Backbone:
């Protein structure tokens, strides 16, 4: 009985199948399969709101990531759009130097178009010679609209191997006798790639006994300088110092990642003032004297634009007559001759000069008068001062 029932049901299925078949006649037109429309694009290596972090490979002559960037084209119900579709890739921001798409697109003005295969379009993102942030766009042009999506990548230098300190004379008056000096630390890896934006950099003055100089310790790569400008790989900070210590060297320690090194900074002398006075103003061979020579001094004071006396400023002296002789030991500069001297903690120094009688010989009638011009240079600057000593000889010729 069961076998009979099964055969009846099988026969019924065959009849129903036969009656439902559609026989296409030769003159019957093809029925077009609808083409799916791109409704959305997404980057397959990023979830919504995430950032992909890439690393340079500094061992290569041409540092490169590279990374394969793939986008999926979806229709309105989330299925892949299988028909071949042109997809346009471009940069939203100006990428770090050398960063490119397929070694073809390097700037925001260029676009690379590739065709999707089974709903997927793939390009290569290659790192250049700078770290930074890359915003990448993928878009598809529709008949009356454009579908697009963006993602971002942070390109990191692998580490910081080299740091150089940079500063100039662009100093501002901080008041109370202090000056503010902008300084910068350029940080790169062994391939010369600037360190990543946002990398923390720490500045310090290691000499704990220095109380006349301080530095703002916290900084980071890419922060703005005093003018609001920034540079790849550069971290800026400010050094404040007492103007009395201008022209002195101070040690600045820079720490970033595993890098830890100290650098010497020569503190600029701002708006220097140089004042020279002969002591006495004239040197005399008095009547009846038989001196072979007479000696005098030139007192010099060095200060900055806020009136701070400058410690240990070095000055050089020249004269139209005479010779410079040994000054007081407190003013002597080791290894230099007697015409080169330095100031004390009050900003003063004194040079000593000797004149022989043959430079101002007796005349008839006496006295003979010889003016001596002296020029004083502040070393390391173009600042000079001039003064004059008068030689007088009251002797009569023999």
Residues:
């Amino acid at each position: 009985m069961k076998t009979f029932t099964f055969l009846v049901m099988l026969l019924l299925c065959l009849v129903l199948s036969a009656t439902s078949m559609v026989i296409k006649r030769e003159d019957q037109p093809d029925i077009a399969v609808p083409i799916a429309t791109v409704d959305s694009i997404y980057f397959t290596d990023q979830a919504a709101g995430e950032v992909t972090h890439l690393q340079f490979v500094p061992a290569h002559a041409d540092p490169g990531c590279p990374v394969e960037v793939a986008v999926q084209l979806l229709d309105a119900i989330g299925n892949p759009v299988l028909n071949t579709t042109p997809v346009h890739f471009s940069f939203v921001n100006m990428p770090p130097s050398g960063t490119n798409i397929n070694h073809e697109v390097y700037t925001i003005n260029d676009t690379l178009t590739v065709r999707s295969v089974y709903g997927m379009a793939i390009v290569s993102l290659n790192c250049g010679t700078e770290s930074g942030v890359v915003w990448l766009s993928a878009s598809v042009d529709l008949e009356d609209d454009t579908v697009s999506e963006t993602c971002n990548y942070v390109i990191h230098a692998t580490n910081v191997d080299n740091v150089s300190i940079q500063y100039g004379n662009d100093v501002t008056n901080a008041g109370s006798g202090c000056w503010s000096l902008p300084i910068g630390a350029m940080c790169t890896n062994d391939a010369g790639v600037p360190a990543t934006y946002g990398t923390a950099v720490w500045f310090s003055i290691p000499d704990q006994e220095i109380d006349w100089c301080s530095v703002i310790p916290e900084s980071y790569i890419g922060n703005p300088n005093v003018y609001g400008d920034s540079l790849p790989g550069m971290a800026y900070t400010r050094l404040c110092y007492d103007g009395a210590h201008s022209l002195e060297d101070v040690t600045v320690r820079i720490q970033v990642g595993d890098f830890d090194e100290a650098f010497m900074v020569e503190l600029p002398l701002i708006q220097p003032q140089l004042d020279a006075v002969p002591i006495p103003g004239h040197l005399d061979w008095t009547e009846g004297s038989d001196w072979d020579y007479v000696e005098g001094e030139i007192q010099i004071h060095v200060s900055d634009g806020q009136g701070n006396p400058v410690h240990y400023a070095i000055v050089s002296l020249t004269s139209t007559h005479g010779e410079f002789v040994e000054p007081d030991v407190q003013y002597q500069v080791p290894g230099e001759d007697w015409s080169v001297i330095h100031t004390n903690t009050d900003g003063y120094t004194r040079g000593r000069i000797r004149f022989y009688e043959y430079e101002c010989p007796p005349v008839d009638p006496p006295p003979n008068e010889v003016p001596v011009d002296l020029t004083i240079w502040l070393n390391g600057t173009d600042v000079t001062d001039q003064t004059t000593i008068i030689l007088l000889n009251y002797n009569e010729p023999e």
The chain has one helix and 27 strands. The first helix runs from residue 2 to 20. The two ends are 168 Å apart (CA to CA).
